[in-house]
Amino acid sequence: MTDTTIRDIRTTLIRTPWPDTPDLHRLPFRGQRDLVVVEIETASGIVGMGYLHILMSPVLRTIGTCIEEAIKPLIMGRDATDVEAIWRDLWRATLTSGRGGITTMAMSAIDIALWDIVGKAANMPLHRLWGHYRSEIPIYGSGCFRQLGGDGMIEKAQNFVSRGFKAIKMQVAHVHDLKTDLSNVRRMREALGPDIDIMIDVNMGWTADVAIQMGRKFEEFDIYWLEEPVIADDFAGYMRVAEALDMRVVGGETHFTRYDLRPFFENPCCPILQPDPMRGGLTELRKIAVLADTWGMQMAPHLFPELNVQVMASIPNGIWAEHMGLLDDLWVDPPEIANGMITAPERPGHGLVFKADAVREFRI
Question: Hey, which residues does 198 pair with through a beta bridge?
């Protein structure tokens, strides 16, 4: 058998410019892209890679320090295939400072790298290792940012549609007043016609009463879902909004692990969950998928389709992947996206490799 004892853990911090591509044109994100890349090497020479893409939070060095101080000493010398045991041990060892936030994000990078090792050791893509369900998953075009204004959001949505996407996501709240938000949604439906699904992302910008008021007005335009209408901790607000509206109310990207999502399982008012692999790793994403399936809920994980496709291709309740193109220029061989579908790669592990020149040039 291959010796999968962990003999080295290397953490690289990367700060790289945003490319000016059609998907990322006029980004609202400030500064540059922050990435934490973890490489775990085994005694037999297998290297697993995990990564975190940190959006809008200045915590790059903080997460790197957490990995070096709190996590690396606990897993050196262990078997990399002990993924479940390592996740649980790290969770328990950091209970007083963790259960979310920086610690869980650091754990997630480790977890992703460990699964990459397991897949490579088995010479199987993760979706095959976990039990393949299907190779192609519907993917929607995201990133019709509110800062683009009504015309800019429509232009970007039409670009997605011209490339074969069957659904797009636009934003409301935070920047515009309610009348402008309503006008932008109406204009988007008029521009795209009846055959393209439109998702709306509030990004936690409203109270429950405003979300109900606006959601009732949006229903006229056949909206596919209303996403994160209230702040993540307002579970009662989620339930009020979901009960008051006929459209789907969804969320979950800002919650950490299945424990944070527990109220949604106890009261499955949201038919679709959107957990983030950076907030629990692939281990948690798979467990959330099982719990969601148990309660008749579907999965549309937050961003990172190049990674999430492995889970989505191995579960029966994966309904949507999200495309924003955040890291597409950095991958050696990203998964194929065509005709509104993303195809799970057949390379061992998660199949992702950063371009060496990008890592070399932009590491800090």
Answer: 168
pLDDT of res. 323: 98
**Whether the Cβ atoms of residue 247 and residue 218 lie closer than 8 Å to each other:** yes
Q: What is the pTM of this model?
A: 0.97
Q: How many whole angstroms separate alpha carbon 95 and alpha carbon 81?
A: 23
Sequence-ordered list of residues with C-beta below 8 angstroms from that of 230, at least 6 positions apart, any chain: 202, 204, 206, 207, 208, 211, 237, 238, 241
Residue 338 burial class via C-beta count within 10 angstroms: exposed 0-12, middle 13-18, buried 19 and up: exposed
CA pair distance 243, 59, nearest whole angstrom:
37
Tell me how far apart the alpha carbons of residues 15 and 41 are, in angstroms, rounded to a whole number.
23
**Are the C-beta atoms of residues 275 and 285 closer than 8 Å to each other?**
yes
Helix (H, G, I), strand (E, B) or coil at 287: helix
- Domain 128-343 fold is TIM Barrel (3.20.20)
pLDDT per residue as tens digits for the range 212-223: 999 999 999 999
- CATH assignment of 6-123+356-362, among 2.30.30.100, 3.40.50.720, 3.30.390.10, 2.70.70.10: 3.30.390.10
| Residue 108: burial class (beta carbons within 10 Å; 0-12, 13-18, 19+) | buried
Condensed to tens digits (0 to 9), the pLDDT of residues 40-75 reads 999 999 999 999 998 878 899 999 999 999 999 999
Could you tell me which residues are beta bridge partners of residue 167? Answer: 197
Pairing of strands 6-16, 33-42: antiparallel
Report the length, in residues, of the chain.
364
Classify 273 as helix, strand or coil: strand
φ and ψ at residue 36, rounded to 5 degrees: -105, 120
Cβ atoms within 10 Å of 95's Cβ, excluding its own: 9
Residue owning tokens 């799970």:
344
Q: Could you report how far apart the first and last alpha carbons of the chain are, in Å?
A: 37
The pLDDT tens digits for 230-247 are 999 999 999 999 999 999
pLDDT score of 21: 86
Residue 22 has φ and ψ, to the nearest 5°, of -55, -35
